[in-house]
Amino acid sequence: MVELEAAIKTLTENKVDFVVIGGVAISVHSTGYVTRDLDFCYRRTTKNLKKIISAFAPFDPRLRGFPKGLPFFWDEKTLLNGTNFTLETDIGDIDLLGEVAGVGTFKEAFENSIVVKLYDYKVHVLSLEDLIKAKRAAGRTKDLLVLPELEALQEALKETE
């Protein structure tokens, strides 16, 4: 289980440009969904990559499922050579996504995000509409199973407008 407060704290205190997506975003939108990791979309600029490296370096990040004996370099070059990373860290599993299926890059995710307070930090979270798009585009069973609840929530919110 991810230590969400520690993850949010390190991201915000290192001034990383990010948008929370995935299970934590689902939970923010008032559902009973439980997640074991933190997924976020990040701005792919050199400056932001350096911030991400600094933010997670103290937590010994390594690729999830990567053999323990093989070296893994947590540096800017590694992040430049990929887009999406599934990491194991000392504070739990963290997924970094340069793009969100069904939504687009950080720019699109950020433009349609909402700002919420998590552990006394203001955090951008993927909008309910974009979360539905992302889950539909991902198409995994676990994503499709949460869609009816998210869509019902979206309908209920429209009725109150």
Key structural traits:
two-stranded antiparallel sheet; 5-stranded mixed beta sheet; 43% helix; Beta Polymerase, domain 2; globular; 161 residues; alpha+beta
Task: Note the topology.
Layout: H1 4-13, E1 18-21, H2 22-28, E2 37-42, H3 46-56, E3 62-63, H4 76-80, E4 84-89, E5 92-97, E6 99-100, E7 104-105, H5 106-111, E8 114-118, E9 121-125, H6 128-138, H7 141-160
Parallel strand pairs: 2-5
Antiparallel strand pairs: 1-2, 3-4, 4-5, 6-7, 8-9
Helix pairs in contact: 1-3, 6-7
Shape verdict: globular
Average pLDDT level: 94
Number of helices: 7
Amount of helix: 40-55%
Strand content: 15-25%
Helix and strand succession?
HEHEHEHEEEEHEEHH
Q: What is the CATH architecture term? A: 2-Layer Sandwich
Low-confidence stretches: none
Radius of gyration: 16 Å
Strand order of the largest sheet: 1-2-5-4-3
CA distance, first residue to last residue:
36 Å
Number of domains: 1
Fold-level CATH name = Beta Polymerase, domain 2
Strand count: 9
Indicate the structural class: alpha+beta
Top CATH class: Alpha Beta
Query: What profile does the largest beta sheet have?
Result: 5 strands, mixed
Structure characterization notes:
The chain has 161 residues and is α+β, with helices and mostly antiparallel strands. The chain has a single domain (4-160), classed as Beta Polymerase, domain 2. The protein has seven helices and nine strands, in the order αβαβαβαββββαββαα. A five-stranded mixed beta sheet has the order 1-2-5-4-3. It has a two-stranded antiparallel ribbon with strand order 6-7. Strands 8-9 form a two-stranded antiparallel ribbon. Helix 1 (4-13) crosses helix 3 and helix 6 (128-138) runs antiparallel to helix 7 (141-160). The radius of gyration is 16 Å and the shape is globular. The protein starts with a helix and ends with a helix. The mean pLDDT is 94.
